[in-house]
Amino acid sequence: MEIIGIPFTDLYTWVLIPLFIVIARIVDVSMGTLRIIFVARGYRFLAPALGFFEVIIWLLAIGEIMKNLNNPAAYIAYGLGFALGNYLGIILEDRLSIGQVIVRVITNRDASQLVDALKQKNFGITSINAEGATGEVKLIFCVINRSRLTEVIELIKHFNPNAFYSVEDVRSVKEGVFPLEKPGFLSSHINAMKVRRKQK
Predict the structure, then answer these.
(1) What order do you get walking across the sheet with 125-132 strand by strand?
(2) Which domain holds residue 7?
(3) Is the pLDDT score of 193 beyond 60?
(4) Selection from 200, 194, 199, 185 nearest residue 100 by Cα
(5) Is 86 found in the same domain as 7?
(6) pLDDT tens column, 100-147
(7) Of the residues 30, 62, 96, which one is the last residue of a structural domain?
(8) Euclidean distance between CA atoms 158 and 153, whole angstroms
(9) Rounded-to-integer distance, Cα 177 and Cα 152, Å
């Protein structure tokens, strides 16, 4: 049997099997990347669920590798799927914008306009005077939803373009002031699951 002049056995060996392995690896590595992120942020039920499907898909991929040990295309497909899966997992995590981050801003310039702009957008902030290596500085703390990080960074660059700032993940928060927003379907349900878990 031939397809477009190519024997089906060759098509199956050199195209279909490597394609299946690439897709399986992209899916399972993407899920693995998200699972690690969910573990770090305390999603104790979602992370194991992802791990369950991740390992099943991985077993399917490695099973095809073991059945085709003499097929170099399978090895290339396995490595390619792993690389693409990592890349896709990072993109998905960024698009989901799950959880909260803390933004620390240190500036030796007047930060009153930046503070006012953050307050006007209903971001909860704490600002204190501090001593830096070159003199007095203003230190601003702000815990925000990850989905608003770009907005906050744009405000910092607009009002204090030379300010030093750092961003770190926050495992959990309680109380605080956060702007009202309309998150995406998936991220809103994930955050709702986390809130219910904290209330138990």
Answers:
(1) 125-132, 135-145, 100-107, 164-170
(2) 2-96
(3) no
(4) 194
(5) yes
(6) 889 999 999 889 999 999 999 989 899 999 998 888 999 999 999 888
(7) 96
(8) 9
(9) 14
Q: What's the angle, vertex CA 157, arms to CA 173 and CA 95, rounded to 5?
A: 50
Give the Cβ contact number of residue 26 at 10 Å: 22
Give the phi and the psi of residue 56 in degrees, each rounded to 5.
-65, -45
Between CA 146 and CA 103 the distance in angstroms is 10
Residue 165 sits in the same domain as residue 107: yes
Side chain identity, residue 96 = L
Q: Tokens 């009202």 — which residue?
A: 180
8 and 61 fall within a common domain = yes
Residue 198: pLDDT band with limits 50, 70, 90: very low
Examine the domain organization and report whether 87 and 153 are in the same domain: no
d(CA 73, CA 53): 25
Pull the structure tokens for residue 41. Answer: 């942020």
